[in-house]
């Protein structure tokens, strides 16, 4: 019946008798659908009249004003088949649009059209094959046997945070009574040679290092341990086979290194004075009490997020869907854009990154694909659960996120236009809806298990932004429609 989901696994054909045409739908694997059309000759006759009018207005025919040239004169200028071809093309597009609208079909691709008959006086017969919104069958998503796990906070964890605070106020003090060791801050100069000849990039007069971090050639810093300030040391070392500079990869080199400066961190003592320096605390014990409170709050927050992840994974594993390649390909592009943005934030261009990891863009996409499949399935599953649970998102919540985007991306008008568009609004609606769906599942489980730990609801804390994530920016950059937002209203028939 019109509006019913189209099942790729169906054995039967659904035949629709529409006004002036007949269509037969055949579901195919991978959420593909083949529509077979038979249009009566009268529709082609009408389409030919319309084609003559269009072409007459567009074509200069000597002796005739625009729009006044008869069909036989147009055919002399354009060719004997031009008018019928124009009419058939428009008729096929109109018939496809009509069928998609009447049957609530959600096309994900432009149709592959095969015309088998298109002659005047005969029915027009053609096939259109498209990928459609996949049918998803939910399994169980509420009767899971697991619950939230809150990690206990002990004194060791409190002391670790305290040490991190002390480290933030540490001073670098000169080391004079021992040799260098891992963790020390060093300044070195060095000259690297091969067969007695210095090579490009192998010399530095003043390079800072934190020993033990292996920022240079693997094993290089090991040769510096034990050196005192002002001492020199020479050693041989082999560059890794996958070294970025292929001229050096796998080659043996000699280095002469001088330790020019050596310093170590000196942390402030953990006492009442230190506690007062980091906040309004009467003494060290008061600071530790506050640190414990924060750690316990973080543990509850982490437990809720981990619980949410397990629920999502459980629901996704129990659901069945035949994912179309177009949705997976789209998600791969989103993940690729996320990678570009992450590299840009580190000051790395994509070409350099691909060179370092020795991979092509196609290989990166192949690596993304399994995760992209999982992400698409998760989006579809949560969308279906939201429908089952009746979760809705008011327009005011969407508008609030758009207003936030206008402030957050004030210097990026293209991004703002995406979020203001219908596609962007659908992205926001879907992400909020999914978030609220998961929160509702957690709250319902907690209500049924009053002895479970108190997990703070998201809305009780700081409001989450749905437009400030890297995924939001990547989706906007790629210009995708969120898979969870696919409906007849959010995807126009292909070719529109």
Helix content: 40-55%
Number of helices: 13
With strands numbered from the N-terminus, the spatial order across the biggest sheet is 1-2-3-5-4
Domain count: the total is 3
Give the overall average pLDDT. 86
- Sheet of most strands: 5 strands, antiparallel
Task: Using the CA coordinates, give the radius of gyration.
Answer: 33 Å
Distance between the termini: 24 Å
Number of strands: 12
The CATH C-level class name of the largest domain? Mainly Alpha
Order of helices and strands: EEEHHHEEEHEEEEEHHEHHHHHHH
Estimate the strand proportion: 15-25%
What is the general shape? extended
User: What class, by secondary structure content?
Assistant: alpha+beta
Please characterize this protein's 3D structure.
With 496 residues, the protein is of the alpha+beta class. It has three domains: 14-132, 2-Layer Sandwich (Alpha-Beta Plaits), CATH 3.30.70.1050; 171-266, Chitinase A, domain 3; 285-485, Trigger factor, domain 2 (Orthogonal Bundle), CATH 1.10.3120. 44% of the residues lie in helices and 18% in strands. It contains 13 helices and twelve strands. Strands 1-2-3-5-4 form a five-stranded antiparallel beta sheet. Strands 7, 8, 9, 10 and 11 form a five-stranded antiparallel beta sheet that branches. A two-stranded antiparallel ribbon has the order 6-12. Strand 2 (21-28) and strand 3 form a beta hairpin. Helix 4 (155-168) packs across helix 6 (284-318) and helix 10 (395-408) crosses helix 12 (422-448). The protein is extended.
Summarize the helices and strands and which ones pair or pack:
Layout: E1 14-18, E2 21-28, E3 32-39, H1 41-58, H2 71-78, H3 82-102, E4 112-117, E5 124-131, E6 136-137, H4 155-168, E7 171-174, E8 185-194, E9 197-210, E10 232-238, E11 252-266, H5 272-278, H6 284-318, E12 320-321, H7 325-345, H8 350-357, H9 361-389, H10 395-408, H11 413-420, H12 422-448, H13 470-478
Antiparallel strand pairs: 1-2, 2-3, 3-5, 4-5, 6-12, 7-11, 8-9, 8-11, 10-11
Helix pairs in contact: 1-3, 4-6, 5-6, 6-9, 6-12, 7-9, 7-13, 9-12, 10-12, 11-12
